[in-house]
Design brief:
heterodimer, A: about 280 residues, alpha/beta, 8-stranded mixed sheet, 8 strands, B: about 575 residues, Rossmann fold, 7-stranded mixed sheet, 21 strands
Chain lengths: ~280, ~575
């Protein structure tokens, strides 16, 4: 059965008109169609925030969890059924603020999941407060003296051990879709940090602000397997902002290293209560 | 004459107190005795004062006793701290060449433990086994039984041999040199093959037998050994054990695993459970079956990390914001710990909700002999699964009379499984409207109707219609039952009722039981009488009084009886 765009039509989004999320949704759907993955084969796990609503607006298995917690929930599901294509979705507040610890350790353990972070550098759902990635000096109702030094998710992911680190832009759907495809195909933890204008609350980092600054990493001159070069690249922000795969390497995933999974997904394993008799003997 | 003998081994952390204690317990269990053993230790790896108590009895026991018949003192502090607990005819074993400045007393028996270990086994590290031999010899136990236990415990033939030699040296030395008139006779009374295990091990076994396939946790006293046991057996039983970055991750991983279709659990203590409570609500609203073990320790905050308390009951009953059905089980014994764990997994899946098993440090780390668990009695109920109907019509949160919707698992068919931490419709998509919200709350809360029928009615222990009824929950069961036994023999009109299945609360049964007694006293290891509050809230009945203890130490029958005297109940 051929997968088409019609397979991925979900509920009508409740996002603001012009929201960067529309571009991300379109890019994700396009990637899934092009990879010929059917909705029943994917699990979308999302957090809370405008980004967390995305799974409802497409189709698939959906586990929309707590603020900041999509990664651990996604990991639990992936471990018991590695055959699922697991995609975690959240915003910058969700993933880099509330869920920061999970971000670091999920990258470190190299779980085979794709993590899309809608990074609009501001809190949307709670209406306009500073986020961990707000530019320095960004003034909001809760950062009247300006936000402090922003969190660098790309540098952090590389440092923590992520094996695929990319940056996309919601204003370039086709490029973003390619990145998502590469992230899904990548074996291991794939972070795709997505620059996403918030038309309601971020009047600094607008479509045109990003468009004037972003450029694509292209050609053979850049080697994404070079970790130090990737760190260098991760420091670029301000006048020029790189888009594309910043770091990628092959490594065993957490699930591959878990020998209990070698006999197939745990969700398919029978319950063998009587086998526990042997354990009782050990206490005699 | 009935045998009821109490060993205590005292020393610093790192001196091997635990291994002597465990080996003594094992040796007497092998000889057909009933055992109850507990350990008292500090939050440190070396030094301090630790002790291990082993109670040996020729009939069923469920508690430790306060009196000590034999103290094996590995340091001076143990003698000074515990000589007051020694019975009139009791004896203190110590190494006079190592433990100095001991005030002479006719109850002291000095044995050169280190020297004998070096001579017999080549290293003083075997002094523990020498001490074991001394203890066994003093009570005339059969050395061959202990020999087998030592060989199994140490595994390797060479290490086993050396420890047997060391123990024999202690045994023989005592035969030749002990001149006191200490004559208790603890000969083996059978070769009864009871199991000897602690509460954590019973829970871990219950989880494996119940088919748990996923466990995520962050190490925390007193439940870490549940994770360690499961990790050791993970490969053989198709179980993934994950040490997560924190307790928040642990419970959210467990929700992910439960959603994806396996039986999943976590284990923690009160502090870790504090971090988990939002995740508990997630399981509640997404109707995901999960099992949480909460082994209580002394709080608040870090409290006394290695000690026991029942201070979390009301917290557990209400943990997480909002309202959702849950089950709370509180094992009193090692058997309960096993069977209630099995029940927890069945109820979690049958009713699609979180089940919390409440234990405490005392139950978690106390060893007791139990009859082998009869696995033929074990049943697995995975609840209502989606098997009929069109895949396209599947609704994860279908509204039903029972409140239970058929479960489908992602990729185990083509049905899309959608659920949300937000309030949602039958399909699982987030909603805002009042009507759907109300219907969904009612659907979830309706599960309590069925659940009430699953809760075992608490049974009265002792004579029906006694004047005083002692009420307890969780790990205090053994001490309370023994209190009833002791006082009944003395002609006191007392019985007890013990709650192990706390929520949904068996209100009618409790009200009926309380109506029959003149005095209802609630016994709890906490400062505020949390079960008493619960009883009053659920039955409208106020207990006549409480016996409370919140010093981090477990109840003993002696303590309960002394408190009852103060209350003029005895």
């Amino acid at each position: 059965m051929k997968v088409t765009a019609a397979d991925y039509i979900g509920i009508t989004p409740a996002w603001c008109p012009g929201c960067g999320n529309f571009g991300i949704l379109k890019a994700l759907n396009q990637a899934l169609v092009e990879l010929e993955i059917e909705p029943y084969q994917i699990l979308l796990v999302s957090g809370i925030g405008q980004a967390g609503k995305l799974p409802h607006y497409t189709r698939g298995n959906v586990l929309n969890v707590l603020h900041g917690r999509p990664l651990p929930a996604a990991i639990g599901a992936k471990i018991v059924n590695p055959e699922l294509v697991v995609i975690a979705v959240g915003g910058d507040g969700d993933g880099y603020g509330e869920g920061g610890n999970h971000f670091i350790h999920s990258a470190r353990r190299n779980h085979d999941i794709t993590y899309l972070v809608h990074n609009n550098q501001v809190y949307g759902l709670t209406k306009g407060q500073a986020s961990p990635t707000s530019d320095q000096g960004f003034v909001t109702k809760t950062s009247l003296e300006g936000a402090c030094i922003p969190f660098n998710p790309v540098a952090m992911a590389i440092a923590a051990g992520a094996t695929f680190v990319a940056r996309g832009f919601a204003g370039d759907v086709s490029h973003l879709s390619d990145l998502i495809k590469a992230g899904i195909k990548h074996k291991g933890f794939a972070l795709i940090d997505i620059l996403q204008p918030c038309v309601s609350f971020n009047h600094k980092n607008t479509y045109s602000w990003y468009q004037e600054r972003v450029y694509k990493i292209e050609g053979n001159a850049y080697d994404p397997a070079d970790r130090l070069a990737a760190f260098d690249k991760s420091q670029e922000w301000g006048e020029r902002i790189p888009l594309g795969v910043i770091y990628q390497k092959e490594a065993l995933t957490f699930e591959e290293q878990l020998s209990v999974l070698s006999k197939g997904p745990l969700v398919k394993r029978e319950i063998e209560s009587q086998k526990a008799e042997a354990l009782l003997d050990e206490f005699l | 004459m009935a045998i009821d003998f109490n060993f205590m081994i005292g020393g610093e952390a790192g001196q091997g107190v635990q291994s002597i204690g465990f080996l003594l317990a094992k040796a007497f269990a092998r000889g057909g005795y009933h055992i109850f053993a507990d350990q008292d230790y500090e939050s440190r790896v070396r030094g301090g004062h630790n002790f291990y108590r082993v109670r040996v009895k020729d009939s069923v026991i469920g508690a430790i006793a306060e009196r000590v018949d034999m103290l094996i003192a590995l340091d001076n502090g143990s003698i000074e701290l515990h000589r007051g607990e020694l019975t009139k005819d009791g004896v203190i074993v110590f190494d006079g060449e190592e433990v100095k400045d001991v005030n002479a007393s006719e109850n002291l028996f000095s044995v050169p433990l280190n020297k004998l270990a070096e001579e017999s086994a080549g290293h003083k590290i075997m002094a523990n086994s020498v001490a074991l031999g001394v203890a066994l010899s003093l009570v005339n136990y059969d050395f061959r039984v202990a020999e087998n236990v030592l060989r199994v415990y140490f595994g390797s033939e060479e290490i086993g041999d050396r420890n047997v030699k060391a123990a024999k040296a202690g045994y023989d030395y005592t035969r030749q040199n002990f001149k006191g008139d200490f004559e208790p006779n603890l000969k083996p009374i059978g070769d009864d093959k009871r199991m000897l295990l602690n509460g954590n091990e019973a829970i871990a076994l219950g989880a494996i037998a119940a088919g748990c396939k996923f466990m995520a946790a962050y190490p925390m006293t007193p439940t870490s050994s549940i994770m360690e046991y499961l990790a050791a057996k993970a490969k053989d039983f198709g179980l993934a054990v994950i040490q997560s970055e924190d307790e928040i991750a642990a419970i959210n991983m467990v929700v992910g695993a439960g959603y994806a279709g396996v039986r999943a659990m976590t284990a923690t203590s009160g502090g870790g459970f504090c971090l988990m409570v939002e995740g508990l609500g997630l399981a509640g609203i997404t109707e995901t079956p999960i099992v949480v073990i909460e082994g209580q320790r002394v709080g608040p905050a870090i409290g006394l990390p290695t000690r026991t308390e029942q201070g979390d009951l009301e917290f557990i009953l209400h943990a997480s914001h909002g309202e959702f059905p849950r089950v709370v089980l509180a094992p009193a014994t090692i058997e309960d710990a096993f069977w209630l764990t099995v029940k927890a997994f069945n109820l979690a899946e049958k009713y699609q909700l979180p089940v919390i098993i409440v234990t405490d440090q005392h139950l978690a780390s106390s060893y007791s002999t139990v009859d082998r668990f009869d696995l033929s009695k074990l049943t697995i109920d995975r609840g209502l699964l989606f098997s009929e109907g069109k895949v396209a019509d599947y609704r994860r949160h279908l509204i039903t009379d029972s409140g239970i919707s058929p479960r489908a698992f992602p990729l185990q068919g083509k049905a899309l499984v959608v659920t949300d931490a937000d309030e949602h419709d039958e399909e699982g998509h987030m909603i805002e409207d009042a009507e759907t919200r109300t219907r969904m709350m009612q659907k979830r809360m309706r599960k309590l109707v069925g659940l009430k029928g699953e809760i075992n009615v608490p049974e009265v222990y002792g004579s029906e219609g006694a004047k005083t009824t002692l009420i307890g929950w969780g790990s205090t069961g053994g001490a309370i039952r023994e209190t009833v036994d002791i006082l009944s023999r003395q002609g006191v009109s007392v019985n007890s009722v013990h709650l192990t299945e706390l929520w949904p609360f068996p209100a009618e049964a409790m009200a009926g039981i309380m109506d029959k007694a003149q005095n209802n006293y609630v016994i709890e290891n906490n400062a505020t009488g949390q079960l008493a509050h619960l009883i009053r809230a659920e039955t409208g009945k106020k207990a006549n009084g409480n016996i409370l203890k919140y010093d981090g130490r477990p109840f003993t029958p002696e303590y309960i009886i002394a408190e009852m005297r103060k209350e003029k109940l005895v």
